[in-house]
Amino acid sequence: MIKNIVFALCGCLLSLSVFAQTTSIESILKQVEQNNQELKALSEYMDSKRLELKSGNNLPDPQLGAYYLPFGDHSTADYTEFQISQSFEFPTVYSARGSLIDKQSAQLELDYQTKRQDILTQAKVHCLNLIYLNKRLNTETLRVEQARQVFEQAQKLYEKEQIGILELNKAKVAWMQEQFKVRQIENDVKNTLLQLTNLNGGTEIDFTSEEYSASLVLAGKDSIWQEKQAQDPELMQLKQQEAIAQQSLNLAKSKSLPNLTAGYNSQGVAGERFSGIYAGISIPLWSNRNKVKAAQSQLGYQQTFTSSRTLQAYAFFEKQYNDYQIMLSKFQEYETTLSGLNSDELLLQAYQLGELSFLEYYMELQFYRQAYDAMLNMQYQLHISQNQLLKHQL
């Protein structure tokens, strides 16, 4: 009964640990999104571009004109005329252009989301790198301690004249090499934190996790691709550019309708005054020539381009997915094989008992350590690949 309770508590603690890790990475990404200077600058630029697009659908300025004709031979008073008018395109043009501006604004938002996704992907890569470095730091710290024990054992054997100075020196060099690896990893951690701080707008981030939270098992390929098409801003941009081309064609067709002018006119001489409504029409016989054909060609190009780029994106995604599955299978084999070996301790015991020379001990140890390091690196590369495959979820 007590044993079951202990297992249950361990399971709860493990779940809480995983949850905390997930929250930690998500909170870092939220900080980066809020503090990143490049995203702030881009947001302000996008606001200015949206206002600039909206200004393109304004009415032209009203026109005010007046005539005063005092010269010449005439028996009546001087002639005067006053006119105010407003020109505008056919009303459907403003509606079509307004729809085009909305689509262009949506395109700007997708541009922003693409940049945001790239920056958050970089930030997550740094977090994953820190987890990997912390794992290596723990491993190398333990190896330093083991190398120290080996050196002390070799020193005792040397004092007893059971080994020579060369073997003692080898043990000392091996200990020094492990210490250097620890210092190198600690430096890599500092540099990675600096890069993360830079993405966070200069605000320091503390991230000391040693465990990955995400499962390495992915959903089905078709499921991820459908999700990617619906959420990935780079793929959504292709569809949006096609929609913009379609609306540009609608606008070009609307511009085939005449432009209009309306206003008020007053003219006459003293004692006689005529006033009333002024109206005019501008027939676009030449100004819209070939513009509809050009818009149709642009739409055809965009549709073909979208189809081509989507096929390329799927081919690249499929390769990424297949490569990931192969690496995952290899990693699982490594993990299963190495999980229960306990090679470091067994080799150390054999050396301390005199069953192995230092050279034999060191060579055997390096073989297993290289295999373990390869497994750690493979695990890290899998999480990096997964981050790329699922970047549309950020």
UniProtKB/TrEMBL annotation:
MF terms in GO: efflux transmembrane transporter activity; porin activity
This protein's record includes keyword Cytoplasm: no
Location of the protein in the cell: Cell outer membrane
Cellular component GO terms held in the UniProt record: cell outer membrane; efflux pump complex
UniProt keyword Membrane, yes or no: yes
Keyword terms of this UniProt record: Cell outer membrane, Membrane, Signal, Transmembrane, Transmembrane beta strand
Gene3D superfamilies the record matches: Outer membrane efflux proteins (OEP)
Xref: PANTHER family: OUTER MEMBRANE PROTEIN TOLC (PTHR30026:SF20)
Name of the protein in question: Outer membrane protein
